[in-house]
Amino acid sequence: MCVSPVGSSTLAGGVNGGLGETMKRAGKVLVALWFVAGAGGAAAAEPPPVSASQLTGNTLSAVAFVPRPAGMPGANGPNGGELLRVMLQAYLGAGGEALVRAWDPSRDAYTAPAERRWSLTGSTFCVGVPLVGPQPICADIHIWGPRIAGVGAKPYAMLDGDLQPGNAIGASR
């Protein structure tokens, strides 16, 4: 009777053969999980389209970053530059009417609520603000529950905030 010593090629081949089968099974499981995650991730990556009904009757509280206009304090040179941070609240009424206030850093207070317009075309949301800077602020938005966020390209804008039911600004409409 012939017995292979521990560490011999016969025993090592048998162990490696078992290890190889285990690795093949693990590989198949990983590939299957990758396909499931990929398919589920693709479906979850695209939120549903935005509708005006998700915005109407809500107060948007957000921060937006827009190009700082030329000649405005803090701008880089005569052609503007840098980004201006705009903190705003806007009650988004029916028919594109909005009651908007924005934080004025020079006064360290919100501006008085002012009537402005808002619109939604496809997923592009625009709102006027009662401050110097690009008007209106527009961004291609997505809404997840109370969260709203988006970016725009002409001019550049970034918007990030939340939506709360009703008029949280306090002035009556």
Summarize the structure.
The protein has 2 helices and 9 strands.
Describe this structure in words.
The protein is an alpha+beta fold and 173 residues long. The protein folds into two domains: 1-46; 52-165, Porin (Beta Barrel), CATH 2.40.160. It contains two helices and nine strands; from the N terminus they run ααβββββββββ. A hairpin with a 4-residue loop joins strand 3 (97-104) and strand 4.
Keywords, please?
173 residues; alpha+beta; Porin; 2 domains; eight-stranded antiparallel β-barrel; 2 helices
Order of secondary-structure elements: HHEEEEEEEEE
The rounded distance between the terminal residues' Cα atoms is 99 Å
Number of helical segments with 4 or more residues: 2
Number of structural domains: 2
Shape: elongated
- Helix fraction, binned, reads 10-25%
Oligomer: single chain
Residues in β-strands, percent: 35-45%
CATH class of the largest domain: Mainly Beta
CATH architecture of the largest domain: Beta Barrel
Stated plainly, the CATH topology of the largest domain is called Porin
Spans of 5+ residues with little confidence (pLDDT < 50)? 7-14
Write the layout of secondary structure elements.
Blueprint: H1 9-45, H2 52-55, E1 58-68, E2 81-92, E3 97-104, E4 109-110, E5 114-121, E6 124-127, E7 137-144, E8 147-153, E9 156-165
Antiparallel strand pairs: 1-2, 1-9, 2-3, 3-4, 3-5, 5-6, 6-7, 7-8, 8-9
